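Give me the fold.
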Amino acid sequence: VGNSPKPVASCAMPVAPNMEIRTDSESVKAARHGVMEFLLINHPLDCPICDQGGECDLQDQAFGYGFDESRFADNKRAVEDKNMGPLVKTIMTRCIHCTRCVRFATEVAGVEELGVIGRGEDMEITTYLEASLQSELSGNVIDLCPVGALTAKPYAFTARPWELTNTETIDVMDALGSHIRVDMRGREAMRILPREADDINEEWISDKTRFAFDGLNKQRLDKPYVRRDGALVPTTWAKAFATIASHIKDKEQKTAAIAGDLVCVEGQFALKALMMSLGSPHYDCRQDGAQISGGRGNYIFNAGIAGIDEAGAILIIGSNPRLESPVLNARLRKRWSEGNIPIFAIGEQCDLTYPAQWVGVSAKDVGTFDNAHFTNAKNPMVIIGQGALCADSGAALHQAAMTLAQKAGATFNVLHTAAGRVGGLDVGFVPSAGGRDVAAIIEGTQTNEIDNVILYGADEIDMAALSNAFVVYVGSHGDAGAHRADVILPCAAYTEKEATYVNTEGRVQQTQRATFPPGEAREDWRIFRALFDILGQDVMGQDVMGFDTLDALRTKLYAQVPHLAQIDCRPEAVALTAIETDGILSDTPLASTISNFYFTNPIARASAIMADCDKERQTTSREAAE
């Protein structure tokens, strides 16, 4: 800085008018050389075997400002490695004590699991009692670490960054739609990293998003199957379609379809067109039984994810955002820590990583909620989760929460847990006139009113209740739906297709193909298009499919649902619409629909890494109980 006799640390110096700043003078270069020499005094020469090699901040700085020899002649310090669980590998001798990981765990994740002990050359970063990391965001310390002290344990010694092909795409492990980068070597996913998106995930991703990638390569369905003599046997597409036709023909109106959590907009649009051609109104995308109805404003996060930053008070109903959307929960914590705003909650008590005032446990408490700190706050928010919408009085609670928001001048926000849910609601994948929802479809199979069920990636329902039905499963993994199916039609996972997803705030986003589906698996919409050729018929003289390519499908989709053409744009606010209910609010306690963060979908359940995380969680819980 001009007129300053010594160099000034830029991170600690506020900018002033007419300040003269020099960033490339001889004194600045000498200071940088000095800092680098101190940083490298105890740093080991591990670059050839370090997983951070090729993308290491310290390596880059040493290349620019380091020396080709060291003046340090004493013994280097060595530090014992720490056990931080199945996700984070530690080589603490490499640590340069920047404390980024400590600050992240304390300030962002809200779980004070990392700290500093000792001082001087005895200083160490460690966990509390050497326990494994328990935060759902713990993997982000890997990105923050500027050296190879904290690296991804599943990725250790598997690949170098220059060997990988990078694809920028969208995550589907929850309904946030985080921006991610998938790194492939050949057809195998090697790792998943976050991309910066300030309005959505900022620069963080959850551990499930980051580490469930190995589930993309396991338990995959790569060819059609049919059930013969009680066992599933491989077959051809033609024979699989013939088997389906033999059961559905003449029973078209007794056929139903259920869409799962990870399915895309194009697939649901094509399946709806197929069901319309069959003359069946029985289809539903709410496999968890959520009682959502009304206009678009009734089922999206209307304030926007970034709108949390402006909230003056927050009421959370029937949700545990820490498990349902860890990155969004970190944003809630940031808003609390920066503004010290009041946060109220109704439902099952849990550790949200920030203080919350629990003002009730059931739907009845929503109807009686009246707090001046909430109603008088600037920009209050009501957040309702699937635990509330799936409750006994879900529809009445949905309306009561909207009424509460309107009276308090608050924004009404639905926090979804399924990546495919908002897209399904947008394209109208809910029962049409006279149609059955998921619960009624399952009941209909037991009374023989529904003979055939198409499960499109739906694995979270009671499969035993479908024992009387002929079940067609269209999915990517051998999960519960595939085990129950009479015919399996393999389709692509989210990294293997170009597809549209709509996140919980109603933002339309598209995935990019990182690799091709395995074996004979096909893109979802192509499967339903082929089924239409065999089963379908024109509706009122019109071809309800009317497409043979993805572009043609999207053209028809955008004509029917215009806002889906607005890619990566947050939609404008939509007015709430009243819904008809009996108005009876139950006193049954509300609880989140997610009890195990690591096993929420077929990809996560196929992941060995997620299984290790769940095992570690159970071990830690037992030790805490003892």
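The two ends are 58 Å apart (CA to CA).
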